[in-house]
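Reminder to self: tokens first, then the designed residues, so the page reads top to bottom the way the pipeline ran.
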């Protein structure tokens, strides 16, 4: 009986730690004093020549999708990026996310483009996997479609963590 109790306890601890690890929310204070919450980016697409990482960023009032494309245009070209993002979800709808900001971080070794998720679309993003991102960064050589191959449910999982935290 003690062995069975020990095994059940061990499985519970392993399961709980895995669930909690998925909600490893990080935070940082922005230059304007705003606290931003985020996850480490998940790789959605990768080939020998390009990749795309995505994560959710929030100030607990607005939710953003952050894209980290590789390769990315130089700062001078990248700052011209003002176009919106079209994201195809598994519900067979296309969602338009408004361009919010383009940032170069860690001494220009990472480019991050933030897109605002419309509040009315938040429920869809929290239920359906992402399938394709249409990135139209006109004025640069960066006009691409990404058919997601990896971690299609990362946005759903990350939003679930944020939304569950808010309910508590």
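Designed residues (168 positions):
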């Amino acid at each position: 009986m003690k062995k069975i109790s020990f095994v059940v306890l061990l499985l519970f601890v392993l399961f709980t730690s895995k669930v909690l690890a998925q909600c490893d929310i990080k935070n940082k204070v922005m230059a304007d004093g705003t606290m931003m919450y985020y996850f480490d980016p998940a790789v959605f697409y990768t080939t020998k020549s390009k990749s795309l990482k995505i994560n959710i960023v929030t100030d607990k009032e607005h939710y953003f999708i952050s894209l980290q494309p590789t390769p990315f245009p130089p700062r001078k070209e990248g700052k011209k990026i003002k176009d919106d993002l079209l994201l195809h979800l598994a519900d067979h709808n296309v969602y338009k996310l408004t361009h919010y900001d383009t940032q170069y971080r860690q001494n220009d070794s990472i480019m991050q483009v933030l897109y605002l998720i419309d509040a009315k679309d938040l429920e869809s993003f929290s239920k359906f996997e992402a399938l394709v991102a249409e990135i139209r960064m006109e004025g640069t050589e960066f006009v691409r479609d990404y058919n997601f191959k990896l971690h299609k449910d990362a946005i759903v999982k990350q939003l679930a963590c944020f939304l569950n935290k808010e309910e508590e």
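The mean pLDDT is 82.
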